[in-house]
Amino acid sequence: MTAREPETCAQHSFEVALISHQIALIGKIKFKRSYDPSLITLAALYHEASESGGVGDIPSPLKYYNPELTEQIKKLKVR
Questions:
Q1: Nearest-angstrom CA–CA distance, 8 and 57
Q2: Cα–Cα distance, 40 to 25 (Å, whole number)
Q3: What pLDDT is stored for residue 34 in this prediction?
Q4: Do 41 and 24 contact (CB within 8 A), yes or no?
Q5: Minimal CA–CA distance to 45: which of 79, 66, 15?
């Protein structure tokens, strides 16, 4: 997510899904990869779902700064 302007989790997830789909198509068409762009897009669309269970979006540098904090955050996530 960007710090330049406000962005919702839905906007972020949608943009990630679009970019992931484009990259996957390039890989499949140009580089003859065998993966499914649709599945990659779906995974990208839901990539923030684990942080929507009350934890919210936590910046990666903070999330992984302290191993104990990382473990506690993982316990809070919806599975």
A1: 10
A2: 10
A3: 95
A4: yes
A5: 15
Helix 9-30 × helix 37-45 angle, to 10°: 160
Rounded to an integer, the average pLDDT of 46-65 is 72
- The sign of the dihedral angle between the CA atoms of 70, 11, 47, 19 is negative
Residue type at position 15: E
Rounded Cα–Cα distance for residues 74 and 32 (Å): 36
Distance CA 48, CA 46 (A): 6
User: What is the structure's pLDDT at 52?
Assistant: 61
Mapping DSSP to helix (H, G, I), strand (E, B) and coil, where does residue 11 land? helix
The confidence score (pLDDT) of residue 79 equals: 47
pLDDT, average across residues 19-41: 96
